[in-house]
Design a protein that fits this description.
single chain, alpha/beta, TIM Barrel, 13 helices, globular, binds iron/sulfur cluster
């Protein structure tokens, strides 16, 4: 017997396109959808931001005092997701300065993950035996107010010049124990396609390199950057993993759906690394909604990071209990695919340490006393 296949796929329709604010209403689509136009029109001043949202005093004062230390830069696309009337909108909190940034606490660290300490050549952090972080630029389309690398991101004078790039590639080439390269920044997609392809082709020609990861927030802040030709270029160098950084369901739009589709259709595996941020996503319902949307877009929720101890981001930090509570409210209540690992990236460079609610109640010899997500008790006995 034949089957009549139903061809309707309405998943994309469940994502709304980003609304276009008044100031860009007459912008031709060919410009709005062009990532270079989006980069060129980034909002860098309060005068322009005022045309998009009702800026409040705290934002205005914080901008005046912070922008020389850490620039403001917001793509028109990302700004279009802002609530114009709510300064606590999760998109605004992530991209517009707030006075909390000006508080530097005694425990804050300039380089919380000790990335500069484990740097054998400028631009390469080699801490773990078989993998390295490779910094290729310090520019990003949007400067996230919670960025852990504020010490150098947004400062063009600290960007990777060609000599630094060549020295980094030479280091990776000469260290045969390196298997996995995380191409990072800033945002590596701030490089041109040609420069990125040069880096990927050099790495792929090294017999000891197995996989690359590209750490990028362009999917969230500038999805127009993921062009067909860029995705096709990546497909020549598989396996390529793309690690991105969605923090709130508002960031999941039809534009991001299409951008992920271009990468996934070109064979890339896309993982999400959410950062737990007070006022943005410190709520299990928000995280669950985000993770469900990510799965519909073919992005795997991979990590929830406890907010790092970087300088000037303490106003984003939540108690650790909040992260555990979120995991407790996900595990069992939704599919395991929607439950990321909750980790603290240990200050000083200790690496990622996973944290879980306590599901093991006690151990008696070969008997393990466990509880499940409904708090029901079970005993698993070893032979
Ligand atoms: S995209 Fe990443 S590196 Fe750039 S500002 Fe945001 S968090 Fe920092």
């Amino acid at each position: 017997m034949g089957y009549n296949i139903v061809t309707k796929n309405n998943v994309r329709d469940r994502f709304a396109p980003a609304p276009r604010p008044e100031i860009w209403k007459d912008t031709p689509d060919k410009d709005w959808n062009n990532w270079i136009w989006q980069q060129q029109k980034r909002i860098k001043s309060m005068d322009v931001l005022e045309k998009v949202v009702k800026v409040d005093d705290d934002e205005r004062n914080a901008f005046a005092k912070s922008h020389e230390m850490f620039n403001m830069g917001i793509t028109p696309y990302y700004a279009s997701l802002m609530d114009p009337n709510d300064p606590n909108c999760p998109i605004r909190l992530q991209s517009v300065p707030k006075s909390g940034e000006l508080n530097i606490l005694p425990m804050d660290l300039e380089d919380p993950l000790g990335e500069e300490r484990d740097m054998p050549v400028p631009g390469v952090t080699h801490r773990y035996p078989d993998r390295v972080l490779f910094y290729t630029t310090h520019n990003c389309p949007v400067y996230c107010r919670h960025c852990t690398r504020k010490r150098k991101v947004s400062d063009p004078s600290s960007s990777a010049a060609n000599k630094q790039l060549e020295d980094g590639l030479a280091y990776i080439e000469s260290h045969k124990e390196i298997r996995d390269v995380v191409i990072s920044g800033g945002d590596p997609l701030s490089n041109s396609d040609d420069r990125l392809e040069y880096i990927l082709s050099r790495l792929r020609a090294m017999d000891h390199i197995q996989v690359f990861r590209i750490g990028t927030r362009n999917l969230v802040t500038l999805p127009q950057r993921i062009t067909d030709s860029f995705a096709q270029m990546l497909s020549k160098y598989h396996p390529v993993f793309v690690h991105t950084h969605f923090n709130h369901p508002k960031e999941c739009t039809q534009e991001t759906f299409d951008a992920v589709a271009r990468l996934a259709n070109a064979g890339c595996v896309v993982n999400n690394q959410m950062v737990l941020l007070k006022g943005v996503n410190d709520d299990a319902k928000i995280v669950k909604e985000l993770n469900h949307k990510l799965l519909m877009m073919r992005v795997r929720p991979y990590y929830i990071f406890q907010c790092d101890m970087s300088q000037g981001i303490s106003h984003f930090r939540t108690p650790v209990e909040k992260g555990l509570e979120i995991i407790e409210n996900l595990r069992g209540w939704t599919s395991g695919m929607a439950v990321p690992h909750y980790v603290i990236d240990a200050p000083g460079g200790g690496g990622k340490i996973p944290l879980l609610p306590q599901y093991l109640e006690k151990r008696e010899g070969k008997k393990w006393h466990l509880r499940n997500f409904r708090n029901q008790k079970f005993v698993y006995e070893e032979p």
